[in-house]
Amino acid sequence: MISNERALRTDLLTLDRSRSEPLYRQIVQRLRDAIEQGLLRPGARVASARSLASELGVARSTVELAYGQLAGEGYLLARGQAGTVISPRLPPRAPRRAARGSTPGPLTLAPVGPPPPFQLGIPALDAFPRKLWARLATRRVRATTIADMNYGDPAGYAPLREAIATYLRVSRGVACSPAQVVVTAGHRASLALVSRALLAPHDGAWVEEPGYPPTREVLQGAGLRVVSVPVDTQGLRVADGLRRAAGAKLAVVTPSHQSPLGYSMSMARRLELLAWAQDAKAWIVEDDYDGEYRYAGHPLPALKSLDAQDRVLYAGTFSKVLHPGLALAYLVVPEPLVERCTRAAGVASNGCPQLAQAIVCDFLQEGHFARHIKKMRLLYARRRAMLAAELQKAFGEAVQVELRGGGMHLIARFGGLGSDTALSRRAQGAGLHCRALSERYAGKPALEGLLMGFTNIASQAEVRQLVGRLRNALVVG
Length: 477
Ligand SMILES: Cc1ncc(COP(=O)(O)O)c(C=O)c1O
Prior knowledge:
single chain, 3 domains, eight-stranded mixed sheet, disordered N terminus
């Protein structure tokens, strides 16, 4: 709240101490209501946790907890030294229901606006070649023809499908024709398409435990019977899947870099999984969301490259290599499924915006994509090493940093400082978007730790400042 909203502030935040509802929740609810009603303007600075706490007569940690939750829901944005502001780009009323429903969706509701520190899964937005992008976009806009303004192919812009097929053949070992590529509006849209085209309500679907919550949510939303299958250092434990639901019709896996543990699926497990799919006449969705990012050795070939029986649908996204604001992804479907899947794409929507697809197509065809990936691999390896070293320096023996072969986040285990959910709450209170590994389990968590994105940490000075803040939040706060 800014100073001329002082009266409003006191009014809004008169807390009712006779209620059983915790004080921090009362603060969250009132601020959320005020933001949604437009009483607090997007971009406006809110009082520091310290000053609001003293005004309300509560502990600073109570206000920090409330701010942390609101930041997680996308209402507030921590801007380091510049303080905390009402998010400038609030999704109109969207978070309200999700935030209050029985299944809060902090992981599916990614914060809008600039990524907060340690936010997971966002590429280095500062390193995106915006000038080049603007040049390609301008050229495409200027060249718009009458045909470009008509409906496009719901399965995707043909030259982009061709460019994706070429890229996958060369870089990911996936041999496919352009006709097998369907362009979608993101991972969720790809999964929804698979569910609609290939599965029936109540079919069983294996998902990884721990896993990526939106995967589970989309499949549940499609009426499938979702079955959690544990993951170990070799990836999905296929034998457990067989014990729990051998007759399932779908498995969604992240073989290159398991989300969130980071292990690559072993060859033995890959073959076991393919054999199960063949026997059960089930489909496998290979979610290769960040397979491009490996820091040791070469990117691993995709599971799809072993798929002699046409059971694997390969799902890629431009969110990690370009940026998530594009909202473009793709699905490679086996040849015999092309007609079913392209028809389902046409039933679902008019397809993705032609202009964005055309720009991405030029980006790929003119070699910028491959160059950008190569650059980002080096940059991320540097940023990751910087964060790991700083954590080690700041926390010493109290932290164990886990680095895998690839990915866009690391896992930090802090001994003796509390549960990972408590730590993540404290970090979020300080405006740091670390997530708890245990939130990634649908059932009882087997492992704990903080998941920390490193891709957007721009400098040594920034990492020092952020880790200092984290230390204050976890150890002092
Ligand atoms: C495991 C996993 N799969 C897929 C995606 C990509 O999703 P989208 O295409 O919706 O950005 C992400 C993004 O964070 C992810 O973490």
